[in-house]
Amino acid sequence: MSFVQADGTIDGVNLREHLTAIAREKPDGEIRGHVRTCLDAALKASRAALMERFRSHELTGLETARMMARETEELVEALYDFTTVHVFRSRNPTEGERFCVAAVGGFGRGELAPYSDLDLLFLRGWKQSAWEESVIEYMLYMLWDLGLKVGHAARAVDDCIKRAKADQQILTNLLDARRIAGDKPLFDNLMERLYREAIQGRERDYVTAKLAERDARHSRGATRYMVEPDVKEGKGALRDLQTLEWISRALFPEEGIAALPGQGLLSVEDNLRFDAAKEFYWSVRMHLHDVARRAQETLSFDFQPELAARMGYQGMEHVPAVEAFMRDYFRVATDVGALVRLSCARLEAIYAKPAPGGMSRFLPFMRRKLRPRHGAFEVRAGRLAIADSAALSADPPLMLEMFAEAARLGVDVHPDALAEVRALNELIDDSVRSDPRAAAALFAVLDGSAPEVALRLMIETGVMSAFIPEFGRIVGRTQFNMYHAYTVDEHTLRAIGVLARLREGKMEEAHPIASGAFPELADQRALFLAMLLHDTGKTGGDQCLNGEIAAREACERMGVPEEEIETVAWLVRHHLDMSDAAQTRDIGNPKTIADFADMVGSIARLRMLLVLTIADIRAVAPNVWTGFKAELLRELYRLTRTALEAKETESVAAASHSLSYSASLARSAARSRVGDDPDVADWGAEMDDAYWLAFGVDEVVKHARFAAEARRAGKTVAVQAAVDSRRSATELLVRAPDRLGLFAAIARAIAASGAEVADARLYTSAKGAAFDIFYLRTPAGEPFGASAPYTLEMLESAVRAAAEGDVDPGPLPETPAPLREAVFEIEPEVRLDDEASDMHTVVEAQGRNRPVLMSDLAQVIAEAGLSVASAHIETRGERVIDVFYVNEPDGGSVKSPRARAALIEALLAVLRSGESDAQEALAKRGMRRAPSSTVR
12-200: which CATH topology? Predict the structure, then answer.
C-alpha cells in the first residue's frame, strides 16, 4: 500500500487508517513492529519522492524543505493519534492531563533538510502524569527506531513561560512553535501568554539579545569569505536570515518578515533579495545533505564540485564550474551581509539598548561634535550619514569621499548611507574613475589606520568594483584549492591589514626587519597600491603578467605618476618571486643570490618586496605563515642585501665577489668564537662557501661541535635531532661517509618515522664526508617530536641505520588521500632547469601531496645515478613542489637528452601513482572531481 500522495508528501488519512487496521487485526505482541514498519515505509517513500522531485528541479530547495516538514508533521500526527487512541487511551482526561505535541526549531518553522534534527515540545497543562510519560516514551522510541534525530522537551505552560522570560534562546525556540497534534486550546494559551508575558514590553531586550548573539556567532565564525563556508551558521548565511525572521516574528506577530518593508526596516527590493538568498541557501543545503548522506552544513571542498554540477553550473575558459558556483555563493553572502547590516542597525536604533557613553559622559572636551569636511555628510548617532542625498547623485566622487571621511573621523558608516551608495554606484563611470578627487579619496583610505575596514565596505556596496573594474573581477572569486582559505578579494584586504599593522609598528616583535624597513620605504603608497592590485591577474593565464597589465591600467587611469606606476607594476609582476626563491631554491647557492639580486636591482625594491611578501603569505590562511618561512626570508634578504650593497658602493666585479667575502667573514667569526679547539677550528677548512652563506655563526659553531664530538668518539656516522623553535621545525643533523643514494636512504627512514621533510641542505666536506641538515615537521605543520621527545630517539636510530646502509626501515606509512583532498584533480609536472645553478641541474617535481612522496622521488634520482646536493619542499595545500639540486657522478649537471627524458618520465610515474590512488578513492564514493586552481 502506498502512503505517498502525488506531490510526494505522506497521505495522512491513508496512513492513520492503516495504523488503525494494524491495531485491530494484529496480535498485541506484533503491533509495535508492524507500526514501525508502516511508518518507516511511509517516511522513506515520501522522502525519496520529494528528493527525486528536488533533484529533477521540479521543486526548489525551499519548497522541498517545507514539504519535508509537512510530511514529517503528518507522520508525527499519525503516530500521536495511534498512541493516544490504540496504545495509551485516556477516555476521560482530567485538567492535569491536557496534552499536546508541538514542533519547535526548524521543524516549527516548517523547514526541514533531509538529515535535520526533529525538535519536539510535549506540552502539558499542569503536572506530569503517568499517562503522559507513557505517550512520550512510546512516541520517542518509535521516532528513534525510524532513524530520526529527535530533540525534545516536556514542559507545562507555566514552565515554558518562566524559562522563556529567563532565556532568550528558549524564547526564540518557542517563537517557532507550531502545534502538530493534541489539545489546541492548550497550545493557543501558550502562544498567547508567550507574546503577552515574555515579549510585550520586552522587545528592546529581545532585539538586543538577538543582535548580541549574532555578533558572538560572527566572531566565532570569522569571515563570510572562508572558502569552505558553513551554510547554516556562517556569516551571511541562513542563520543571519533566520535572525531577522525571529526578530520580525517577535515584533510583528501577525506579519513577521513581511512587515519589515512597511516599517521602513527593509525596502521592497531588499525583501526580494532576502527571499532569493533564502531560496539559494536552501537549495545548497538540500543538495549538501543529499550528497553527504548526513547533516553536513560545511560546504567543504569535497562537495563543491558535485553541488556545482547539480545546480547547473558550467565551466568556462579559466573559470571551472566549481569556482563559478562558489563565486555566486559569496555574492549571495555579501548580499545577506548588507541586508543584515542595514536592518539590524535600524532595529538597534529603534529597539536596542543604547551603549554607555564611556568617559565622554564625564569629560566635556570629549563631547566635541565631529564635523565632516563636506556638507553632504553628517555624523548621526556616532556614524557618518548622508545629509544631502541629491549631492551624491550630482557629484558621484562623493561616494568615495564618504569612505575616506569616515576613516578620517574614525567612525562607522551609517547603514542608510551604505544602502544609498549601493543604489547609486552605477553612476561611477569613466569620468569618475579618472577624477582626481575620487583617486585621492581611495589613497586617503589606504593611508588610514585600518584601511581594510573601509575597503571592505567599499566592496560590499559595489563602489570598489565600479571604481576599479580590474579589482571587481576578483571580488568573490574563489580558488579551488586547499592552500587559500579566503576569496581573492578577502585575501587582499587581509594582506593590506597586515601592511597597515607593519606600518604602525604593531608587528615589530614578529617581523623586526620588515617593521624596521617600513620607515625607510621611499613610496609607501606604491606598496599599498601594489598590494591592492597584486592578485588582479587571477582571471586566467599568467597571473603575474596579467596582474602587471591590470595594475598599470588602473594606476594610469587614477593619475598615478609614471615613476610610481613602474614601482607598482614591478611589485605586482614579481610579488611571488621572493617567496619562490626562499622556499624552492638553494639560498646558500651563490648563483641563487646573484640571480635574485639582479632581478631586484636595488635595496629600496628589496625592502618593498620583503614587506609585500610577508603580508601576502600571512594573509593566505591562518596557519600558512611559519617560523621556517620567516627564517628563509630573513636569510634571503640578508644575503641579497649584501650583494646589492656591494653592487651599489663598489664595482660590479667587486659585487660578484661579495658573497665569497661574506663567507670568509663568517669563517673568521666562527673561528674566533670557538677559540683554540682544533677539531672545531678545522670545520672552516672543511666546508665550502655555500655552507657559510646559509648559516649564522651560532649555527655554524653548533654544527662544528657536533662534528668534532663525533670525530673524538670515533663515529663514522653521527645523528642528532632537536627542535629548532626559531624555524618551527625539528633540525636533524647527519654526518656520514658520502655515497650515491645516501640522501634517498635517509629520506626513506625519515618517512618511515612519520616525519615530513620541510627542507634539506646537503654538503660534502673537503674530507669526503656528507654533512646533511634536514628540517622536519609533522603532517600538521608542527616540529616533529615536539610533543613526544621519545620519537626523536627513534628517528635518530632509524636514520643512523639508514646512513650505515645495513637496515631497511620497513614499509612506509602510505595512506590514501582523504576525500577532501582527493577531489582535486592535479596534473603532475616535472621540469629540469640548468640556469638556476652553475653546477647542478635543478629538478622541480610538482604533484599531489602525500607523506612519502619525497622519499619516492629521491629513490628515483638515486636509481638514475645522480647525487642530491640540496632539497627544498613547498607545500601548498593538496599540492606540493619538491625541488632537488642534482649532479652527475662527475659533479656536473645532467647533460644527456636521453638521461633527462628518462628522469622526467620516471619522476612523473611516481607523481601519477598518487593521482591514481586519489581517483580510486573518489570512484568508490561516486564523487566528482575538478581541476584545482593555481596555488600561487
Answer: Beta Polymerase; domain 2 (3.30.460)
828 and 857 Cβ atoms separated by less than 8 Å = no
Question: ∠ CA(535), CA(541), CA(546), 5° rounding?
Answer: 45
**Cell numbers placing 921:** 578513492
DSSP state of 314: -
Domains of the chain, by residue range, sit at 12-200, 219-350, 657-706, 707-922
Compute the distance between CA of residue 311 and CA of residue 324 in angstroms, rounded to an integer.
Answer: 11
> What tens digit of pLDDT does each residue of 231-277 get?
998 888 999 999 989 988 888 888 888 888 888 788 888 888 999 99
What percent of the chain has a predicted confidence (pLDDT) above 90?
54
In this structure, how many other beta carbons lie within 10 angstroms of the beta carbon of residue 356? 8
Domain 219-350 top-level CATH class: mainly alpha
pTM exceeds 0.85: yes
478-494: pLDDT as tens digits: 888 777 888 999 999 99
The C-alpha atoms of residue 390 and residue 78 are separated, in whole angstroms, by 61
Assigned C-alpha cell, 262? 512597511
CA–CA dist 286, 64 (Å, integer): 8
Could you please report the per-residue DSSP string of 406-463? HHHHT-EEPHHHHHHHHHHGGG--HHHHT-HHHHHHHHHHHTSS-HHHHHHHHHHTTH
CA atoms within 13 A on the CB side of 165: 13
- CA dist list (Å): 118 to 50, 111, 147, 179, 745: 18, 11, 11, 14, 57
* Cβ 804 vs Cβ 715: under 8 Å: no
- Give me the residues paired with residue 181 across strands: 101
Strand-pair partners of 178 = 103
Strands (E), 793-834: 824-825, 829-833
- Reported as type and span, the H/E element at residue 203 is helix 203-221
Q: How far is the CA of 445 from the CAs of 350, 497, 882, 914, in angstroms? A: 31, 12, 41, 47
Instruction: Flag residues of the chain having pLDDT under 50.
Output: 355-368, 651-656
Q: Which of 557, 50, 606 is nearest to 289 (CA)?
A: 50
Task: Please name the residues in contact with 276: beta carbons below 8 A apart, sequence gap of 6 or more.
Answer: 332
At 720 the three-state DSSP class reads strand
Q: Which amino acid is at 87?
A: V
> Residues with Cβ < 8 Å from 368, sequence gap 6 or more?
none
Residues 620 and 755: their CA atoms lie apart, in Å, by 24
CB atoms < 10 A from the CB of 590, how many?
23
pLDDT, position 365? 41
**What SS3 state is found at 907?**
helix
* Cα atoms in the Cβ-side hemisphere of radius 13 Å centred on 15: 30
For residue 393, the model assigns a pLDDT of 94
For residue 96, the model assigns a pLDDT of: 64
| Same fold? 12-200, 219-350 | no
Which cell is 310 given? Answer: 547539480
